[in-house]
Each structure stands twice: as C-alpha cells, then as structure tokens.
Amino acid sequence: MKKMLIVSLIAVASCSSYAARQSSEPIKVIEPIVGLDTAKVELGKTLWFEPRLSASNTISCNSCHNVATGGVDNLPTSIGHKWAVGGINSPTVLNSDLNFVQFWNGRAKDLQEQAAGPIENPIEMAFSHELAIGTLKSIPQYREWFKEAYGKEEFTITEVTDAIATFEKTLRTPNSKFDKWLKGDDSALTKEQVEGYALFKQKGCTACHSGPLAGGQMYQKMGLVKAFKTDNPDVGRKAVTGNDFDKYVFKVPTLRNVELTYPYFHDGSEWDLQKAVEIMADIQLGQTLTPQESKKITAFLTTLTGEQPQVTLPHLPPSTHGTARPQI
Amino acid sequence: MKKMLIVSLIAVASCSSYAARQSSEPIKVIEPIVGLDTAKVELGKTLWFEPRLSASNTISCNSCHNVATGGVDNLPTSIGHKWAVGGINSPTVLNSDLNFVQFWNGRAKDLQEQAAGPIENPIEMAFSHELAIGTLKSIPQYREWFKEAYGKEEFTITEVTDAIATFEKTLRTPNSKFDKWLKGDDSALTKEQVEGYALFKQKGCTACHSGPLAGGQMYQKMGLVKAFKTDNPDVGRKAVTGNDFDKYVFKVPTLRNVELTYPYFHDGSEWDLQKAVEIMADIQLGQTLTPQESKKITAFLTTLTGEQPQVTLPHLPPSTHGTARPQI
Q: What are the transmembrane regions (chains A, B) (predicted)?
C-alpha cells in the first residue's frame, strides 16, 4: 500500500512537471510525425538514395545528408561532382521539416523547394531537372510508383521533390533524454546536464536556440557582438535579399543531435562542441564562459540526441536502354 | 476426390522435378546463410557503411558495392578518392562469399583478404590500415563492439576485415524465379525463359557459368576464341602469376542478379545484357547467336535475380578528439 502510494505520488509529480515544463520551457518536445502518405514516403525514400539523380550516378541526397551519421556528412563542406568542394556546411536532414525556412540563407521556403536545388547545382549533383526526370521516366518501375503515389501517369520535378520532402518529414528523432525530461522524467538527465540546461537559458542561448528544434525558427547574424573569424566568403542572407544588413545573417541551426553533426558553424570550422559553445557565447552574447560552464552546457547539448530513424535501404529499379549513362 | 488426386500428382511431379533438377542441372540453388555470429554481422554492417575507413571520410564499402543497386555501382569503373577512376569494373558483393577466389584476378583467397584491399588502395579509399585502426580505436563505441564480437580489447585489421566479411556473407539473394524452378515449381519460368535456359546449356555457357553462382568457380580467358576488343589495359591474372598464359585470364563472374549489375565485363564496356550475351557467345564459344536466341537467353538470365537483402542503415558512433580528420 505504501509502495503504491509512492508510485502514485511520483506519477502525479511527473504529470505536473510535464505540464509545467511543456508550457514554460523554451525548448519543446519533438514528436514523430504521423499521417503521411505511405506511397509517397516509400517513393521518396527510393529517390533519397537514388544516385541517378546526379550526373555521375554516384551522388544521392544521402551522400551529403547521411542518415547513418546524424543526417550530415561530417565534413566542413561537402564533396560534390568531380570532387568539387562545397561552399557551406551541409545541414542535417534530421527534423529538418521543422525549420521555418530551408538552407543556411533561407532561400527555400520548405523542404520541397530545397530538394530541387542540389540536383542542378554544378558543384553538387551537377544534373538538370530535365535530365533527372528523363532518367526516372526511362525506368518503368518509377513510372508505376509515381502513378501509385500521385494518381497520374505524368510527373515532373514537382512530384519528385514532393516525394523526397515527404520522406524527409519521417526523419524525426524523438525520445531524446532531454525530451524525456521535458515530459517529466527527472531521472533522464544528470545533475550536470540539468545545470548545463539552466546555464544555457541563463546565458541567453535560448534567445535563438528555442522551439522543438532548439533553433531553426529565425535568422541571426553570425558575429552579433564580435566578428566571426572565417576564411569562408559566404555572406549569408545578403545573397538572397541584396541588403547589406543581411550580411553574415544565417538561419539559426538546430541543436538537435548536435553531438552527431560536427563540424560546426556554416563554415564547418569547429570540430569540438565545447569550443563551439564557447565561441558562440563570446561572439553572439559577449560572454566568456568558464571551462566548467561550457562543459556543463555541452553535457546538456548531448541530451538532445534523439532516437535515430530506422531506414531500410531501398532496392533501386534497374536502368533501361533509354536511361542516360553516367557522366564521369 | 479427383481434385485431390490431381493435387497429389502435381506434388509428386514437383518433388521428382526437384530431385532431378537439383542433381542434374549445372546451376544450383542459392540458399540463405545461417549460423553467423550476430555481433560480428552487426559490427561488420556498421563497418560496411563506415566512410571513416577512407581518407576523405566520404567513401565506404557500400559506395562501390551498393546494396541498393545489386551490390555494384553501375559504373564502367568506380570513382574513388579525389575522383580517381578505377581500373576495373566493381564486382557485386551479393552472394560473393560463394566465389572460389576474390577480385577479377583472384588475388585474394576470400572475402576477408579482399576487404583489406580497397582501404589502402590510393585510387579507392586511399587510407591505410594503421590509420583506419587508429580511427576506430578513437571511438569508444567501436572498442566496445569489437570487444563484444571478438572477446578482447585489442583489435587489428584482421578483426575489421573478418567482421566486414561476416556481414558480406549475409548478402545472399535466394528465391529467384530460377531457384523456384530448380526446386520444382514449373510455373516459376515462362516458356521463353525455359527455352533460354536450354539454349544457355546447349550453346556451352554452362561450361563456365555453373554452380550456385552461375559463375565464380574458375578462371577463364576473356577472348578464348576471338580477341576481346577493349581499351582497358588490365592483363588479368598475369598480374598475379607473372605467367604469359594468364594474360587476359579473369575469374568468371557470377550471373546471379545480372540484370542489376550492368555495365558488363571487367571493363564495364557493355550496357546491354542481350548484346553482352551475343559478344560472349562469339568470343568465348565461337558461336553466332540469332537475335531470337540471345533474347531467350537474356530472358532466362533475368530469372537469376533473387530476393535482395533487407539492410537497415546502421547508426555510426560519433568521432572524438582523437579521431583523424578527413583529408579532402
């Protein structure tokens, strides 16, 4: 009886922390997505791993946003067609549907618009939408799958990118330690991690890194208080708006799964998460963290690693006589 | 009663065709492999998808032997480190444990020996065994997995390649239409496919393409009757033995899943399976096939596509401060 009472009290305590934390904490729980069209998800998964969307037939979406490695390639900037080196760090595909815009500079409004970019970027997949559609249409199985998913014989880049975006939406990472804690499980975090989270809020990190993504909800200047030292020439959002005040303004990246998504920053210059935290505090908030503080914040950040998606490799249907040959 | 009798008679007919075909046909059934050590398989799967076994951290075993595309990359020859173009067509990993030796020229006796090659080949992964082991040892989760799989703290390239080879052994493709037919299911093949198989035997293809792999059991000269026209300078087995009579002698490749493993031949020069059949008949057997004959044989060859392996992508453990950085 005594035991039951304790259990009940814990349950009540949990419920109330849950309610309290859910409403008051700046970072919100990530939930798995439901209700997506299965035919579109499956088709999108196949296209996600489809190297024939690239000129060389060797680069797929997964090459730079690898689901096996936190949805990134763990390179400062990606390697593309003919070993071209990319201009900016590849952001993670995990939970990416929750970003308010896509790309570092926000030039795509959603995942569907984003997915069209790399296919025809000469330093990424180096193909064209026309050639990509020609390739897919030359393969009877794809024609069948598109018909199943979209109810019509004809398809264009619109359906291709819609399917890819629909698959990407499945790539949520729920049930991180932090989300368990947000839901009321006090044992999910260590004392150091709780203290790190308190510091994260206290120092002002949540001014930008909030919401379910702990980021991805706004633009911010990189180097708000002090200039960010980098050799990377990217001007950020200025490239989209043409406005000088958008120079070095980027979308605030998500901190979900951040322990997996090194190296950090848009230039991929920092490999050490604790150092990245210290640099951010310095140049964005004008605060010098003690090693103890940055260590605690880093300990908290590792609790944002969620359950990684279980993705079974698709089997790509073979090319036909009509399929374009790889351009090596 | 009449119906039951007919069913019984069909069953008897099936059993006897099974027994007869199993013992008399030159191509044998492929069965799934059983009894492998699960810890080694799982570790090997992780290593199979591990780009940190390459200098650039972008190339894994799966890059050139893609389980999503018949265990190959569907390129004439593979793209390696810094976009180096390989010297010979990548053979399929599917069912590869059944080959009597590994590589086109047989320079590795088994999959474990083979797996050590690409890691330190400068035009493939361009790493070294020492650096690869250093990378894996810098990651605590790998140390733990190796201990679980091999029962000791220390590991070397021997355990790495053993784990990869153990995973590769799981990549069998059973239950092809042809295997169903071999097991007595007459309805598994069409009339054209059965006729194609009869021609395949009658023309002498099974002299080399026999056993469970329909190949992979012997060496043979490429251009036995007439010279094979190619720009590819590979001399085949002569590179291993130094003997002139081994010039242009290669391991006979498997025909399992051949509809997926284009382009064909060691130089990857032929994309069309029917044309590949005609060329083989001409230069290996001195026979000119009619288009009807090569079409039938091709129809038979497509029945060798088996159930493709279901592989769930692993989640690779993150690097640490001690992990070597990618060399781009």
A: none
Percentage of residues in chain A with pLDDT exceeding 70? 95
Q: Which residue has the tokens 């069912």?
A: B95
Alpha-carbon dihedral B2, B5, B6, B12, rounded to 10 degrees: 180
B73–chain A nearest CA distance, Å = 7
Q: What structural domains does chain B harbor?
A: 2-29+175-304 (1.10.760.10), 38-169 (1.10.760.10)
Concatenate the DSSP letters of all residues of B275-292 into one string: HHHHHHHHHHH-----HH
Q: Is there a contact between A206 and A200 (Cβ–Cβ < 8 Å)?
A: yes
pLDDT of residue B1: 41
Q: Of B51, B262, B312, which is closest to A312 when you measure between CB atoms?
A: B312
**How many alpha carbons lie under 13 Å from residue B167 in its C-beta half-sphere?**
26
Best to test chain A binding among B57, B58, B259, B307 (most A CBs inside 10 Å): B58
Query: Of A67, A262, A310, which has the smallest distance from its Cβ to B319's Cβ?
Result: A262
SS (H, E, C) A164-210: HHHHHHCCCCCCCHHHHHHCCCHHHCCHHHHHHHHHHHHCCHHHCCC
Joined tokens for residue B148: 């679980």
Annotation: binding site of A: 61, 64-65, 81, 205, 208-209, 280
- The end-to-end CA distance of chain A, in Å, is 73
Q: Which residues of A touch B66 (CB under 8 A)?
A: 51
Residue B81 annotated as binding? yes
Classify residue A175 as exposed, middle or buried by CB count within 10 Å of its CB (0-12, 13-18, 19+).
middle
How many Å apart are CA B248 and CA B241, to the nearest integer? 12
Task: Name the residue facing B74 among A49, A57, A262 (closest C-beta).
Answer: A57
Catalytically active residues of B are: 124
- Name residue A221's beta-bridge partners: A249
In this structure, chain B runs to a length of 328
- Judged by a CB distance cut-off of 8 A, whether residue A222 touches chain B is no
ipTM of the complex, rounded to two decimals: 0.93
Per-residue pLDDT at B11 exceeds 70: no
> Under DSSP, is residue B174 helix (H, G, I), strand (E, B) or coil?
coil
What is the phi/psi pair of residue B124, to 5°? -115, -100
CA dist A181 and A32 (Å) reads 17
CB of A262 less than 8 A from some CB of B: yes
Q: Is the pLDDT of residue B13 over 70?
A: no
For chain B, the average pLDDT equals: 95
Q: Of the candidates B101, B62, B96, which has an alpha carbon nearest to the alpha carbon of residue B236?
A: B101
Beta bridge partners of A250: A220
B-contacting residues in A 49-108 (Cβ below 8 Å): 49, 51, 56-58, 63, 66-70, 73-76, 79, 82-83, 85
Of all residues in chain A, the one with the smallest CA distance to B257 is A318
Distance CA A72, CA A266 (A): 13
> B319 contacts in A (CB within 8 Å)?
74, 262, 271
In terms of phi and psi (left: phi > 0; alpha: psi -120 to 50; beta: otherwise), the region of B71 is left
Binding residues of A for heme c: 61, 64-65, 81, 205, 208-209, 280
Q: Which residue has the tokens 């605030």?
A: A252
From the list A234, A293, A241, the residue with the least C-alpha distance to A265 is A234
Kind of pairing, strands B219-221 and B249-251? Answer: antiparallel
